DNA sequence: GTGAAGAATGGAAACGTTTCCATCCGCCCT
DNA sequence: AGGGCGGATGGAAACGTTTCCATTCTTCAC
């Protein structure tokens, strides 16, 4: 019977006492560094197991002056595209024994900087993050100041030479518009997140514009909406009154695409018979709904994993300005069909 | 010009040196504990700001022997219902200055226990977690052993008296079936996660069964599927061949419901004209798709927040066996309509 | 003028690890 | 048989905080 029923977590000192050795020996045995007699190893392991000893990450990190932890900052975990990339980061991190500290901002700058402060205090060794606008972000400036390595995910800065992993948003958007044009659409509109607040939205808009110009088509209506605005009917109505209404809409992300389809149906328009819709992101639920969502697929999970990998390998080298372009694919879907015949 | 361009993170000692005071004073000033001359405070604050000093959480936690951190364990971040509850936990935690450490298991027991070990090593003060089966879970046994407080979310243990926050799954399922019966459905099937692996699935199945019995209806077909199985057509085919095919299907969660609708369409059946479908969870995308998804809504975000609150307030008291039942609502949707007339 | 009280501040210990260095011991080689 | 070598182990310092305790100094009452 154990006389000592100490009701606190066992420390290395407790293990050492029980095994009758020094803490140095315990540390060595448990970490497999240094040599030890088989009997010693046995004693130590038995003691550790008896006390269900779990080395404190805190003590370890303090001594080691490194945490083997990276921070992740995303606008929202409830947007599947971010959840997916976080999962990719976690996978890649776990593989090499790294932990992940996750923070979300809900698109709120105040929460963003608080989150960054928190991650910094936790001494993360680097960050993978997605910000609203990579060209003007106080958080990124902070990171530059303290020289903490970071890799942007999804963001594609236009001016600042910041390391990022993304798709070529302009080329990707062009692919969407070209596909629409090939299907006979001539009046192609865009539903986009606020340009002021999103470099992605700007890039995707640029691609849309360029593709239309190349195809000799006039730019259709552009509707800018806020992140959390999911009731879009009243925003679309004005553009669907005349005979010149668009036959296809390109949404700058999938959540927006879903909201758009919903709104079109509320307006009594059929998708894709009256209006086609294509999204951007490639979230999984898009495949499950009816009509299934046509979308430009970014490899979210792989992007997360790649971003982490860049961060890790770049820890020693120079991360500045490096960019990785991920491949994208256009996933066909029932929401994107041929232009209505009466309009050709 | 600063002569000292030390390229490492500033410590309290650096601040003390620069301000010309002791580290004790720095600590007191920055934490607002104890008294200090206005000039001293000014000097300290200036030095801290000059060096962009951020107190190390690691050092702080080690000394304080508490981390103000809770762990969260979910099967998957990419399932919106979990993402949503995690968001709720984060919100509630942030409000009282707690941090959140997130781990996901991907339904893999090995990953689960590794994740728990990790959280334990990080000295979380408690856990909010969702496991496959709360009645037989090695991870939970571990937590009981080390006496670390935890609250289950979504799980509703049948035997073990474990603290949990959930809806009354049986009553909720009954509500779904009763609604279906009221709409004239007589042959009501169920698509469920593996009973072996999920207490939720079992409870929901029990509610389905009980409601059918009460309504004097024969149990329709039950299809058990794996978590990540999203192609269901071949699983449904056998049950839709005879004239006795079900007119309504109750899916034990929303992802399953989406997959079911998809599969039905692949089989050439219309939803809801030929077959109605109702899910369970209340994920947001359900509202956006067409047909919109009828579903039993759990207040995911509030559940997360509540679970955290229980954990926090229970830290001192006794958590054992406490349960909080959250209110549920039945969200109507286009996927659930009246039974086809020819079948009445 | 003396003493006490209290404010301001500093010294030092402690938290749980890892790791450098020193010590001790047994063994092999000559 | 003696010297040296190397393996096993322990002591102690260090990481960055907070906080207890002690010290100094100011101020005020007698």
TrEMBL record, chains A, B:
GO terms assigned for molecular function: DNA-binding transcription factor activity; transcription cis-regulatory region binding
Sorted UniProt keywords: DNA-binding, Transcription, Transcription regulation
The keyword Transcription appears for this protein: yes
Pfam families: LacI (PF00356), Peripla_BP_3 (PF13377)
Occurrences of domain HTH cro/C1-type (ranges): 11-44
Keyword tRNA processing: no
HTH lacI-type domain span: 10-64
InterPro entries: Cro/C1-type_HTH, HTH_LacI, LacI/GalR-like_sensor, Lambda_DNA-bd_dom_sf, Peripla_BP_I
SMART domains, A to Z: HTH_LACI (SM00354)
Gene3D superfamilies, alphabetized: 3.40.50.2300, lambda repressor-like DNA-binding domains
Protein name: Transcriptional regulator, LacI family
Organism name: Azospirillum oryzae
